[in-house]
Amino acid sequence: MKTFDLPSNSNYGDQPIPIAFPDNWDVHISKIHGYDTPALTEAQIAEKIHAAIGAKPISEGAAGKKSAVLAYKNLEKPGQKWHIHGWFCLIGCYLLMMYYTTVSGWMVSYFGRFLTGKFYSGMPAEDASAVFGQLLSDPVEMGILAVAIVIVGFIVCSFGLQKGLERVSKVMMLALLALILILAVHSLTLSGAAEGMKFYLLPSMDSIRENGLRSLITDAMNQAFFTLSLGIAAMEIFGSYMSDDHTLAGESIRICALDTFVALMAGTIIFPACFSYGVAPDNGPSLLFVTLPQVFVNMAGASGARSSSSS
């Protein structure tokens, strides 16, 4: 009898299994390619999983701080057309920048109006809405403020994502979260808080029947894509700077949780104020610039500061 040892449990001590064959059998041992290759280390296994089937990891394509188009070109295989989506991402980023620079300019303008006493305690909703209308009717002011915001943005980004944008954002986001919590608590003390929260959180079957469930789901998806900046390579660029101490799954959960929390707090601020100050809650994005001024000027201490500056 011919006896051959069949390798088994190669990862747990190499315990061969003897197999016997008749002497008149012509038996040959065929070994697969790479059988004598040394076992992979844990670090090598992690690297192979990170770049499965020889594909480049997304972080490698984006870490060069290139545009979305060039990042896709670095990742795609010959003959593929993924870089076309990179062009759409680039266009989307420019469109989004137009929106944010304009809204940021509005905020700067409102800051100046608060300092000069344009807003006052007990201000009617019509007057607050008129201030916003005056701003929209002045393209020169909006243009100058938008250009100023762009210049400041370029200056911050010139220091790099981590040394510039991330360093500034850490301070500003923490301050914003603290302000949001203060305003949310204050809004819950207003006279129309109960009605506002009912309008905000309780589903309206009449509205669903009127607009249709499909429209509701589409609006929710649009909001999710907008608020998370999905589809324009923003996550690809920011994710390329993520340290090895964090996982994509963990960061995804934290981002979604924080984004949802901020959205809920924003609604808690706005809708009770709408029902307290007689503002229609369906005015769209401009609603923010009508309700929040009244929230600020009617907070404790705001009227005193206004009267002091007037006197």
Keywords:
311 residues, mainly alpha, 14 helices, 64% helix, disordered C terminus
E-strand count: 2
Report strand order across the widest sheet.
1-2
Quickly give the structural class.
mainly alpha
Total number of helical segments? 14
Radius of gyration: 30 Å
Query: What is the succession of H and E elements?
Result: EEHHHHHHHHHHHHHH
Globular, elongated, flat, extended or rod-shaped: what is the shape? elongated
Strand proportion: under 5%
What is the typical, i.e. mean, pLDDT? Answer: 79
Q: pLDDT below 50 for ≥5 consecutive residues: which ranges?
A: 303-311
> What is the assembly state of the chains in this entry?
single chain
- Helix share, percent: 55-70%
Q: What gap, in angstroms, lies between the N and C termini? A: 113 Å
| Most strands sheet | 2 strands, antiparallel
Question: Would you mind describing this structure in some detail?
Answer:
There is one protein chain. The chain has 311 residues and is mostly helical. The chain is built from 14 helices and 2 strands, in the order ββαααααααααααααα. It has helices at 42-50, 58-62, 68-75, 83-115, 125-136, 139-157, 161-187, 193-201, 205-211, 213-227, 234-239, 248-277, 288-297, 302-310, and strands spanning 2-6, 17-21. It has a two-stranded antiparallel ribbon. Helix 4 (83-115) packs across helix 6. The longest helix is centred in the first third of the chain and has 33 residues, at 83-115. It starts with a strand and ends with a helix. Mean pLDDT is 79; it is low at 303-311.
